[in-house]
Input
Amino acid sequence: KIETKQQLLDFIEETRKAKGISIKKACENTGNFTQAMWSRFKLGQREPSWDKLYQMAKAVGIRIHVSARLG
Output
């Protein structure tokens, strides 16, 4: 269960590396990311929005399902 942006970013990076997808290829898969942008997120120099994280996840083949509950 992933609850924070950092947890999702870590999972995206683990998946990207496990699949042998380069940052360059992942950026191409997003259609609008630069390698510098991806690297800044990865290195913690900038915090990605949830929307950017969803794009990154899709670029490495991760499907995102969001659930919400009160409490």
